[in-house]
Write a structure and sequence with these properties.
This protein is of the alpha+beta class and 64 residues long. The protein has two domains: 1-29, no CATH class; 31-64, no CATH class. Helix content is 41%, strand content 23%. It is built from three helices and two strands. Strands 1-2 form a two-stranded antiparallel ribbon. The radius of gyration is 15 Å and the shape is elongated. 0% of the residues are buried.
Amino acid sequence: MHVVIPSLGGLLSGVRDAYKYLPDTTEGFLTAEELSVRMVAVGFRRVNFKRLMFGTIAIHWGER
């Protein structure tokens, strides 16, 4: 991620340095599974998620 994202961002935008921070910030994100567990822990029911963009994005939903 530390090489791929800045490289692709630089290739698409022409400004590689603007994309160096992204891998560092996203490493602190919860996984899709961890977020689902937390949603259940705070009272959501019927929690689920769908991965998109080759697994790089997950959309979560649940009932409260």
